[in-house]
């Protein structure tokens, strides 16, 4: 019995490890072609959540379990690599070094807290607690990443709205003063009428 359990655990580790190695190049190619890597991280979190929830139902089907663990292993490893690539695309210099240190620090904390969380879940829920505990961590990551993307979208929409309001206010001020509306307005809110008039005289 003990030999069978250890052999099964070894098979699980091999399938997951094979996926983490084989899928890194395809994941890297996709990561280089997306505009915002956070969308890719959000997709990985969703795939990891679905795979974790499916594990208890696939224990009797060897091929289905092998396929899920292969993809799941690649996705889990992709969270780390794509996360580092995202930092490299957004930051540089001292900021990148600080962010990289914080990233590795958080990763190390996860390596310490994760096994305790999984072990506690298995003590309470039995063998199915392994999948539920991992699914809960993927769910937390998915919610966090979705919140960050939604916040960024709101900030972009607010910036576009305020820019539109400023343009309309400037046009209203020029119309009220009876002056022509400038074709282009610089950062200080001043038009280029003098240059346009000089060009017309030429």
Structural overview:
- The chain is mostly helical.
- It is built from 7 helices and no strands.
- Helix 1 packs across helix 4 and helix 4 runs antiparallel to helix 5.
- It is elongated and about 85 Å long.
- The model is unreliable at 185-202 (pLDDT under 50).
Give the helix level as a range of percent.
Answer: over 70%
Q: Give the number of DSSP strands.
A: 0
Number of helices: 7
* Average pLDDT rating: 78
Order of helices and strands: HHHHHHH
Structural class: mainly alpha
Rg calc: 27 Å
Return residue spans where pLDDT drops below 50 for at least 5 consecutive residues.
185-202
Q: Outline, from the CA principal axes?
A: elongated
Biggest beta sheet summary: none
Q: What separation lies between the terminal Cα atoms?
A: 96 Å
% residues in beta strands: under 5%
Keywords:
mainly alpha; 7 helices; 83% helix; 0% strand
Question: How do the strands and helices of this protein lay out in sequence?
Answer:
Layout: H1 2-22, H2 24-31, H3 37-54, H4 62-90, H5 93-125, H6 129-177, H7 193-201
Characterize this entry briefly.
By secondary structure, the protein is mostly helical. It is 83% helix and 0% strand.
